[in-house]
Amino acid sequence: MNAPLPDVPEVRVVGLPQLTTGFDLVERLDLAMHLKVHGPLEPMTGERLAELAEAISLRGRGGAGFPFGKKMRAVAKASIRRGVRPVVVINGSEGEPACRKDTVLLNRAPHLILDGALLAAEALGARTLVVAVTRNSTEVSVRAALAERGLSDRRGQQLRARVVRTPERMVSGEASSVIRAANGGPALPPGRRERAAETGVGGSPTLLSNAETYAQLAVAARIGPRRYGHTGLPNEPGTVLLTVSGAVARPMVIEVPTGVPLRYILQLAGAPPLPQGVLTGGYHGNWIDAVASHNAVISRESLATVGGALGAGAILPIGPETCPLGESLRIANWLAAETAGQCGPCKLGLPAAAGGLSDVLNGGGPAALEALREVTQAVKGRGACKHPDGSARFLMSTLSAFTDDLAAHVLDGGCGRETLGVLPLPASGYQDLEESIPSGEKLAVDWTLCQGHGLCADIVPELIRLGPDGYPAVADASVPMHLRGRAQRAVRRCPALALRIEQPAAEQRPALPAVNRRALGSGRD
């Protein structure tokens, strides 16, 4: 059974590296090493930068694939029309369990990402930079990189830069969730559709894109569109970062030129020679069968042609020994639990769809299959964010890709295989407690008082999620030091007084790290 992926898995490269240049020299490129490896970067005007993005066909690498040049022009136009300075946001909120490519870049090459974001900020005249991250290791790396450049959130600076920590949840990486978190709210979709280019952080026009996109922009700005276009396909030039996991011998993040056969990537990671299926694009992506995975190459167009998706760059094969519907049910249950709880299609529809798939697997027959198709179809296009659509796409793809197994479960009572759990899911709670300093305190729910108001999940979603019934899914959660303030606020805000913080016994209280007195002194020997 797959364990959760580490923050920084093994990194490989096919061909010449661009984003991962220098990874063979050091574990992390600090500013000095970054400049030695990549060289200096000259500023560009907004028009030249937009033309560069268009010349290399740069699209967002977070899943949506929106053209970066078009997004940048929209932000510039809105900023000029309104007479306000825009904001630039790096979305490093990688809450999907199958994705680690942005985390790898932020941990090992943070200055390449900052290069692209600062290039865009100067071109647009922005005076605010926000970096959203989900993990402790990533936050430490980004804060160190900002300090190396002398960037902070202090008043009086030409550019103010700050880090926003978001919970490791599927919905937290959506653009509207990141903007809401940057504005001081919970990292959840606001429940209404808004264009960041018009109204984003602080109500200002906001250029928001994911970490890899800015890194690609920085590479192209250094080498120019002609040289950039020498790598990869003519219509999708350059390289892409992929996270390969699932039924593989070596989970990895790999940089690969577009146009490389998918089968070669699977072979490199140690996937089965004939995978039963390959999930492309992550848990909001599509399944493809063994024949399609043999014929496809790494590109948006090629994967779409065979029914797949590049999406967030996650590739997950499964072998013939596991039940593909059982594997998909594990993911469907997780996707249902990831609901923001703000609209019916997400809060009610996704748990119902997951339950429908469970009924199919447990002998519900044709009636259960028809009910599953109906509820999944009803979810599409009706959510307040993209999570219901992505989850419905995953479920419909499951039904289309594994027709033989579906028939075996519907007509014959099962396929005879166990579910091995090869698709990675986060550990229980998934809030990086192993890397945080524990307080020893626990957040607990008194079930005799709880009325399911859900305020606690809004205030501290890292510790509490709402279950399908609308009640907290976590009744006993350890509280790390960095979340104590919000946990206490959740306790105070509970209308039913059902939430409490339990103090540890004296002998169980964690010891604080020893104080480095020299570091607190004058600095003299």
Largest sheet: 6 strands, mixed
Terminal-residue CA separation: 53 Å
Q: Bin the strand percentage.
A: 5-15%
**What's the alpha carbon Rg, rounded to whole Å?**
23 Å
Tell me, briefly, the overall form.
Answer: globular
Structural category is: alpha/beta
Number of beta-strand segments: 13
**Fraction of residues in helix:** 25-40%
CATH class of the domain at 24-226: Alpha Beta
Which residues sit in consecutive blocks of at least 5 with pLDDT less than 50? 429-438, 506-525
* CATH homology superfamily of the domain at 24-226: NADH-ubiquinone oxidoreductase 51kDa subunit
What is the CATH fold-level name of the domain at 24-226? Rossmann fold
Helix count from the secondary structure assignment: 19
Summed over residues and divided by their number, the pLDDT gives a mean of 87
Pfam families: Complex1_51K, Fer4_15, NADH_4Fe-4S, SLBB
InterPro entries: ComplexI_51kDa_subunit, Nuo51_FMN-bd, Nuo51_FMN-bd_sf, Nuop51_4Fe4S-bd, Nuop51_4Fe4S-bd_sf, Soluble_ligand-bd
Protein name: Oxidoreductase
Domain Soluble ligand binding: 243-274
